[in-house]
Amino acid sequence: MLTVAIASGDTASSGQLLASLEQTGLVRSVKQWSVPADKLPETADAFPEVVFLDLARDPEPYFQLGAQIHRTRPACKLVACSSVVPPNHQLLLEAMRSGVQDFLPKPVDPRSLKEILSRFSKDLEGNSDRTSLDRLIVVMGSKGGVGTTTVAVNIGVQLATYARKHVALLDFANPLGNVHLLLDLHPKFTVRDAVDSLDRLDSHFFAGLMTRHKTKLEVLGGATQPEEWQTIPVPMLDRVVNVAQNNFDMVLVDMGSQFSSEWSSILRMARMILIVAEANVPALWTLERRLLALKGFGIDLDRARVIINRWHKGDEEVLKGIQKDNNRPVFACLPNDFRMASNAINLGTPMHENGNNALGSRYRQIAGQLAGLDVASPAKKGSLGGFFSFPAKR
């Protein structure tokens, strides 16, 4: 990911640019410099990789700054943002002399911005790999009713408490989000508010949309009315995810059981896709077809992980057959503890608060594995109820 600075004398303009940058998913950090007040770093290594010159009516101070940056660190990429569209010959000439490599019209178009940053990433790093693969984990159900939200919530809580990660859980379930109910939260803002505010959705604004649980897990509430999804463009959600990744160590997305090609961009971003199923014919039938669909979307199935919820010991033979048919091992099995799971759901209490038990321990193992911790499984070797070890990162 790129390190970036914005040199501006207009807080409103620089704020819009900051929000657009953080939505690309291609920047690691953004500094904001005031022109002409701020002092530049003294060493070349302290400079960011890309500097955006947010030109004012008088562009001369910005071009002087650009020339100084170019002299100190020639490898730094300079981009001028101008409301003069198209830029006249004199403006272009002065920009070229100061080392500017690209022009962007204001207000900045997010697509054009992402294209420029992608090109810079290739130039500076020699590849176009998405660094978001380190942070995003998607949780989806093979079908409705398999406990997808329960799994997402309890993994998120364990990542925050046991693995001590700064974790966001985004409730993208359609038609209604239930994450807040399982945590006894009352979000003031939802995914709808994030999408409606994309023009100013930066890290600071996004933090204000989140609801914090006492375990330190932070939640972006889901839709509270089914009709809200009629005005939530799914392709816009990848920009919400990108901003989340700038704020958090790990980002979980609860997709519920919905599944269509519209979600392919978010699925491609994910480091891991956890598919929740049960050991019954309808759930396993849809699981098989969901894996085939992921492959059809061009998603590497090595990133897909199967979690069997409400597992009974008598399910072992069924699961062995499924693993053989799909040529894919089960990532983890969550034992069926109806009373404990039901109480946790009804009371809005995560399972980490229920003491040492098999179900809570299994969630802890999953979280540890996802966070890259060295987690030992107490299960007997060869038992399908055990925790199956896979690399935490590709």
Structural account:
This protein is an alpha/beta fold. The protein has helices at residues 11-23, 60-72, 89-98, 110-125, 148-161, 179-182, 191-196, 203-209, 237-247, 264-269, 281-296, 316-326, 338-347, 358-370; strands spanning 2-8, 27-34, 50-54, 77-82, 102-105, 136-141, 167-171, 211-212, 218-220, 250-256, 272-277, 304-311, 332-335. The longest helix has 16 residues, at 110-125. The strands form 2 sheets. The protein has an 8-stranded mixed beta sheet, with helices on both faces.
Quick summary of this structure?
With 394 residues, the protein is of the alpha/beta class. The chain contains 14 helices and 13 strands. It has helices at 11-23, 60-72, 89-98, 110-125, 148-161, 179-182, 191-196, 203-209, 237-247, 264-269, 281-296, 316-326, 338-347, 358-370; strands spanning 2-8, 27-34, 50-54, 77-82, 102-105, 136-141, 167-171, 211-212, 218-220, 250-256, 272-277, 304-311, 332-335.
Helices and strands, with pairings:
Blueprint: E1 2-8, H1 11-23, E2 27-34, E3 50-54, H2 60-72, E4 77-82, H3 89-98, E5 102-105, H4 110-125, E6 136-141, H5 148-161, E7 167-171, H6 179-182, H7 191-196, H8 203-209, E8 211-212, E9 218-220, H9 237-247, E10 250-256, H10 264-269, E11 272-277, H11 281-296, E12 304-311, H12 316-326, E13 332-335, H13 338-347, H14 358-370
Parallel strand pairs: 1-2, 1-3, 3-4, 4-5, 6-10, 6-11, 7-9, 7-10, 11-12, 12-13
Antiparallel strand pairs: 8-9
